[in-house]
Fold this protein.
Amino acid sequence: MTAQAAHPSATRIQEAEEEYQLGRVFFKKKQWRIASQHFSLAEKRAPRNDAQLHLYRSWHGLALVYSQDISGLNLCRHAAAEKCIEATVFQNLVLAELKLNHRKRACEALRQGLRLDPRHRGLLTLKKKVRLRRRQCLTFLKRENPLNKWLGKMTYRRMMRRGDLR
């Protein structure tokens, strides 16, 4: 009996990983339709207990969103709802939400991803791009209220002097 016949799930995991890598290559070339096909194959070939399944689904959803198919957003959201997830899944969700102009949801996904991995490069880059806001001082007033603006500036300056913000 060969090693591959003894472990069919190992073979499926390897096949899924190969499709995933192909999808990444095409994604970097901005050939999103082809990339989504490879991510879809990776998702289908991966066994249900594969730890990378949510990652494949996330990339599949992002590639679909980039190829103008908004159903990919649901794939990204489902991937982010999984229990054992990595920060890259949230990075993909943030990118998908931003592509569809859902800034509030993108900010929430960014916060969740940074809670999971505060040093994730992609999320930190997106944080600079999105410019996450601090919580407003007086939540019962609108953010644009002059009192909220003034209090925000004062607390920001105080935090900068203490070194709490970078």
